[in-house]
Amino acid sequence: MQFPRLVLVRQKFRDRRIADVAAEVQKQLAGSGFAGRLKPGSRVAIGVGSRGIHSLATIVRGVVQYWKDQGMRPFLFPAMGSHGAASAQGQADVLAHYGITQASMGCPVVSQLAVVSLGKTADGIEAFMDKMAYESDGVMLVGRVKWHTDFAGKIESGLFKMMAIGLGKFGGAQRYHSYAYRLGLEHVIRSVGRQVLQSGKILGGLAILEDAHHNTGKLDAVPVEAMEQREEENLALVKTWMGKIPVDADILIMDEIGKNISGAGMDTKVANRSVQCEYNPWPDTPKFERIFVRNLSELTYNSGVGLGMADVVTDRLVNRIDWEPTWINSLTANTPSAIRTPIHFPTDRECLERIAPTVGKLDLDEVTYVWIRNTMELGRLAVSENLRGKVEKNPLIEIEATVDFDFDGENDLISPFMPVEAAAGTH
């Protein structure tokens, strides 16, 4: 099978990065009044999640230093539901993978799974909080606010979701997702979050907003009294910053998926798939007939969450999957379809040759392709030459070069993109 030439393009996303993230952390917290809620010497529990957030270690270290400077005794704990295979060591390992350890942060990292009941919401949902956090003098959350992969609402992923599902650990996460089946996840996040606030333990949070380049674009120290309102405002803002693929295509090629890229492995609102594997459910989003995923990211540590949204994957991806954390995370979220194994073949070339005839075009020269590193890194991408006319009309796209579909001696594609870890530091 002959493949078209590729046009490498760069999208002109606005660069909103904060020049000095560490200084901005201190500026935000200095004006927050958080420390005034506690007596000197108090123990402060800082909850941190499991996403691949740019500059996360720098931000968390700054939060720890703020509390130390106020004469408090901070410690860190994972606020991440079922991630890390829902084990205490696994969740500590997730934080360590992001550079968050006792040695690097200068305070203890306490990871355990015991929870305390905080009573029930009006819907009868029992709310929970990490036991060590509850026994502290106050809890602060550090998390990214962004769109959620499973639903659309005024509150999606962020501090409120972390208060509900993250603080509830594995048992709480299971329970909340079950209620969400009937009540909707946004309703559950709001009602459980309000129940957690009633505990009086939450001091506030530091909301992280990232621009389309995955750089830190805004830090917002959110007081406990305004958490719900500010969550809505921050989500509405960051949605306007979102990077998207600029054209429809028959086949979307991704170099990698992973939990560090999105909670669903791939950002469903970029790839236009639902976690229930519905095709093109999101309006105002480019449509793709088929998705080919080549591999897992290094920082997903062999979690295969998200592979079920692909139509074809490689044998090497399937063979890398560690199924225990994969199924624990997927079943807790009530999304078993998202980890179904798609058809898979030994080489990239065979994957493409097998899937191309299924897009409804008799002439395979008419098949259109978009190729991305992953759904988080959309600044540079490749489109097949038969889409050149569409990208040339877009003033926010710069054409860099025209290249061939390049295969190595094993018939696997040679990617024109850098790994996400390297690319994140180049914008």
Key structural traits:
427 residues; alpha/beta; Rossmann fold; 2 domains; eight-stranded mixed sheet; five-stranded mixed sheet; 15 strands; 20% strand
Can you characterise this structure?
With 427 residues, the chain is an alpha/beta fold. The chain folds into two domains: 6-14 and 242-423, no CATH class; 21-238, 3-Layer(aba) Sandwich (Rossmann fold), CATH 3.40.50.11440. It is built from 15 helices and 15 strands. The chain has helices at residues 21-30, 56-69, 88-97, 102-105, 131-134, 159-166, 169-183, 185-197, 227-240, 268-271, 315-320, 323-332, 348-355, 388-392, 420-423, and strands at 6-11, 43-48, 73-78, 115-120, 126-130, 138-144, 202-210, 216-223, 249-254, 288-293, 312-314, 343-345, 369-372, 380-384, 397-403. An eight-stranded mixed sheet has the order 12-11-10-9-13-14-1-15. It is globular and about 70 Å long. Residues 420-427 have low confidence and may be disordered.
